[in-house]
Amino acid sequence: MNQESILNQYKLIVQNIEKSAEKVKRDAKNINLLAVSKFHEVNKIIPLLEIGHCHFGESRVQEAKSKWIDLKKLYPQTILHLIGPLQTNKVKDAIQLFDIIETLDREKLAEKIADELRKTGKNPKIFIQVNIGMEVQKSGIAPEELKMFLNKCRNDYALDIKGLMCIPPAGEDSVKYFLDLYNLAQKNGLEEISMGMSDDYQEAILSGATQVRIGSSLFGKRNYT
Length: 225
Ligand SMILES: *Cc1c(COP(=O)(O)O)cnc(C)c1O
Fold this sequence. Notes:
The protein has a single domain (about 5-220), classed as TIM Barrel (Alpha-Beta Barrel), CATH 3.20.20. It has helices at about 5-25, 40-50, 60-75, 90-95, 105-120, 145-155, 175-185, 200-205, 215-220; strands at about 30-35, 55-60, 80, 100-105, 125-130, 160-165, 190-195, 210-215. The two termini are about 20 Å apart. By secondary structure, it is an alpha/beta fold. Strands 7-6-5-4-3-2-1-8 form an eight-stranded parallel sheet. Bound molecules: pyridoxal-5'-phosphate. The site of pyridoxal-5'-phosphate has 13 residues, from strand 8 and helix 9.
């Protein structure tokens, strides 16, 4: 997509978010649009930064560094979210660059992040990724283990967990999973719920998402296998 069509898609998505919010009598201001810019070049991202958009998502630390170290200097409004798996050897870099980590999914990682926060004094928002469909190939905390994991994060590692994130099973109706994540967040007193992507963000909003993560319908198809 060219810059003009990205801006047009952006407007359309913002309108759709407003419409969905209205349907369930929610304020669209409480629904954050995360522009997922992974695998997209800087020249596609700049138009959104220019109109003042703040929240961007990347899935790989290395790629994010190559694009965002410079972009963040030029556009200090940027709030960068990590939405891909985080290896423990990348934690240091991730904490340097990202403002929000959405993919805390195991204790070893909680420990590493806590170490790094102590050393740097940084304070990113942290979400726990939940393996909402209990899929073997997906990372995330199993729903029934969430409470215990959350307590561990808080008590043993002093992490300030703000919310939950999930990626429902592909090729299935996401709504059931969205509602499951919503209920988990409610039960555990977590305010932020990151769910819904290009194909299902409107359903996610109806199910209580506080953030939707949108890549392809904003920037176009990604070139990767
Ligand atoms: C890539 C990605 C998205 C965006 O997906 P689209 O279908 O392109 O909107 C959202 N969330 C996560 C975790 C992703 O990895």
